Amino acid sequence: MLLRAVIFDLDGTLVDSLGDIADATNHALAQHGLPTHPESAYLRFVGEGVRELIRRAVPAGQEALLEPVLATYKAYYDDHLFDRTAHYPGIPEMLMALAGQGTRMAVLSNKSDSFVKRLVARLLPGVPFAAVYGERPDLPRKPDPTAALALARELDVPPAACAFVGDTSVDMDTARAAGMYGVGVSWGFRQVDELKAHGARAVADTAAALLAALRDARP
Predict the structure, then answer these.
(1) Statement: the pTM of the whole predicted model exceeds 0.90
(2) Closest by Cα among 85, 138, 142, 84 to 111
């Protein structure tokens, strides 16, 4: 069965947002008198939604501050969403090439839905995504496959004919649980070994290589 659709993760896959996430979290921590973290620490903090991000960033024993820190983070990040965030090299061209060959495309992220929609609209204008979704209250976050399977139905494509592209084990676990073709990217927030250990069928080092991997995929 040939691939007919591709669902993409956002952060670490299509856009490099780590700097703004780290800045917003460190701002929130400092506002509440908590220690901050080096930007590199956020490579491990991100990937499973904003609440998990804040839980990992807040020191043990300070759980009472989780909700206040989260609120401060959201307010600051809302105003600084585009300070340092940009798409990775070659991503718009890769997406338009996929669209040109008739591949249906969507975005599924664990980031808050409103932020996901704003980032895609601003940084990837004109890309004909059929759907763009972040975390929503009515659906469990990745790696639960529910949202990915719902997207496949929305795209009118069977899961086996759909690829799931991402940069973390969460994305590869989602692909496997949904019965989709998991493709990892090496330029994101995690290591290639992690992607392979969680079932990546291919790992791409550049946007051009990702396009080739999707074209050559044999689910």
Answers:
(1) yes
(2) 142
Question: Is 9 an annotated catalytic residue?
Answer: yes
Pick the CATH number of 5-16+86-216 from 3.20.20.30, 3.40.50.300, 3.40.50.170, 3.40.50.1000: 3.40.50.1000
- Reference 148, options 127, 168, 128, 163; nearest CA is 163
Domain with CATH 3.40.50.1000 in the chain: 5-16+86-216
Do 120 and 107 meet the contact criterion of CB atoms below 8 Å apart?
yes
Among 9, 20, 167, 171, the active-site one is 9
Kindly give the confidence (pLDDT) of every residue in the chain, 219 residues in length, as a single tens digit, with 9 standing for 90 and above: 579 999 999 999 999 999 999 999 999 999 999 999 999 999 999 999 999 999 999 999 999 999 999 999 999 999 999 999 999 999 999 999 999 999 999 999 999 999 999 999 999 999 999 999 999 999 999 999 999 999 999 999 999 999 999 999 999 999 999 999 999 999 999 999 999 999 999 999 999 999 999 998 887
